[in-house]
Design brief:
homodimer, alpha/beta, Rossmann fold, six-stranded parallel beta sheet, 44% helix, DNA-binding
DNA sequence: CTGAAAGCGCTTACAG
DNA sequence: CTGAAAGCGCTTACAG
């Protein structure tokens, strides 16, 4: 099937391409009669404009880029639903990229964005990322960037996240109230600001809290936690600062024959839909993932539409909520 | 920061844009010396080619479109990881769209693909979709389409899915062996071929199996299942044909005070990472989601590269696996 | 091996 | 209100 172009449509109508273009866009310089004729013919010939021609000419792509550390995580996948919802409304397209927790990959992805492929970028940093120079080059090119969840530490940047300090404080306080004496904070990364903030929050409640770095896949995390739980003075309260560390903790307890919550109590930062169905049900700090995605996208579009100024003032702290369940029940 | 174009790069080098273009692509018509000079300068000026100019000229976008019913589902999100992995390797970009189970939305998304925005399409059909005319127009335009998981019923099309008939048979047989007498099959849609096939497989093992349509969100599903479980002659074995129906079944049992597996046994088609941590652990039919995504993308790129012929011969049936757990334990 | 020129399919000042 | 023309930034026959 031959692709029909604006020129062909114009020829069919015995009008100039310029006029047809304006008519299709609903320009008010065009008479109602002409506009209708054009619309009719466009429909009849099933004309679909070439987006790349238009992008090239208008120097805007109607596309945003989303960079995530991983997709198979209930928080990030919900977040995408939020982003997609507002992008769809705005008539924007969404390109997805995964950094797989690699700084190198993340930098390569972001570098490509300098090409003008996207009008704006939504990013949640990889666990390895220790600086955001690669993102500053986007700002230099006037491509707005909004950080969400795993935001950076800079202040002059748009950041949409929960109040991680507060959430950490709540989680640790909750464990203390449940009677825990030796808390352990499980961390997936040494670089992420939000993890540092969660830990800082924990420390405010429990200054003596220990911290354990658990990198790698689920199995490696499990082994690392197992090790910590096999120690003589093992922790009796665990805070899993990301979802996968929550799974890994349950597995480690099972494999060591430790009972939750009598031997160890557990709270996890998690949006897993099955938290209440686990054995025992898992106490979670839930982040409003869909809303975070929606808000981040909304702020980004504001930046795109208004030409990117003072986006840092659009930063939002969205509350998370601690949901107490069986895994932290008192003796 | 001013964006540097091919023309500027050429001027800097006192070469023609054509020569520079060829040098950057590593064309063998260009001398080694020139090539190196060009590469050097490109690096120094941090030249990034405009993808849309190149797309317009070459009539290819280096982009694929992925259409999913939903993102927040462990099967689909894993699938995306597989797709992204092979797209990344191939230097392709991935546009994501959600149909939210709506035929209307799906059709609108696919219609846009006629514009040449993507070189190929990967789709898992919405629950409402009863025909695939919208997708045939892509084939007419020589845009290859690969269906995955929720495939259509046509044979002359590339389809990557598990053996759903077989999986249904295995699930129902497993429940019968566990002692169930009254089986109920929970379905999220009346249109999806794969669901029909799962049911057909169940019927082969258990001709008398009943079927219940549960549409809507998790809460609505829960209510519908609750109703069925509150009947006098209630089922004692449930097959949840998609993941969310598995959650809903657990909730319904909890709210009715029914014990799994003694009152009701449950098996779910699911890739949830927490299946073994549930109370009780959930017997699942697991689909190799990552591999399905990878395979679908690989087949699609074959179609894109070779110009789309006989893609239907690339269809694959990938085995799923029944993992027996506590929810179907014998009395 | 290098360059001049045309053109991908749009949009948008500018003229009338 | 409509049209002619230039141009977005590339690539690619074609010439030399």
């Amino acid at each position: 099937m031959r692709t029909i172009t604006l020129k062909m449509l114009a020829a069919e109508l015995r009008l100039s391409p310029g006029t047809v273009s304006k008519a299709l866009k609903g320009s008010h310089e065009i008479s109602e009669a002409t506009r209708e004729k054009v619309m009719d013919m466009a429909r009849r010939l099933d004309y679909v404009p070439n987006p790349y021609a238009s992008s090239l000419r208008r120097r805007t792509s109607k596309t945003i880029g989303v960079v995530l550390p991983a997709m198979a995580d209930s928080f990030f996948s919900m977040t995408i639903e939020g982003i997609e919802a507002v992008a769809g409304d705005k008539g924007y397209h969404v390109l997805i990229y995964l950094s797989h927790e690699s700084y190198y990959k993340e930098a390569a992805i972001v570098k490509d964005f300098q090409s003008g492929r996207v009008d704006g970028v939504l990013i949640s940093l990889s666990g390895e990322t220790w600086n955001t120079d690669h993102l500053h080059t986007l700002t230099d090119k006037n491509i707005p960037v909004v950080y969400f969840d795993r935001v950076c530490e800079e202040n002059d940047v748009a950041r949409i996240a929960t109040d991680d300090m507060e959430a950490g404080f709540a989680a640790a306080s909750h464990l203390l109230e449940a009677g825990c004496k030796r808390l352990l904070f499980l961390s997936p990364s040494d670089n992420l600001a939000i993890i540092k903030r969660r830990l800082a929050g924990c420390r405010k409640a429990a200054p003596g809290i220990a911290s354990l770095l658990c990198i790698g896949d689920l199995h490696q995390q499990h082994l690392r936690i197992r090790e910590a739980l096999a120690m003589p003075d093992r922790p009796d309260g665990i805070i899993a600062s990301v979802e996968s560390l929550g799974y890994a903790t349950y597995q480690a307890c099972t494999s060591l024959g430790l009972e939750i919550p009598s031997d160890v109590k557990v709270v996890a930062f998690s949006n897993m839909p099955t938290a209440s169905l686990l054995h025992p049900s898992l106490t979670t700090v839930e982040q409003p993932a869909f809303e975070i995605g929606k808000t981040a996208a909304t702020v980004l579009f504001k930046g795109i539409e208004k030409g990117y100024n003072h986006l840092s003032e659009e930063s939002r702290m969205i509350p998370s909520v601690l949901v107490p369940r069986g895994s932290t029940a008192k003796a």
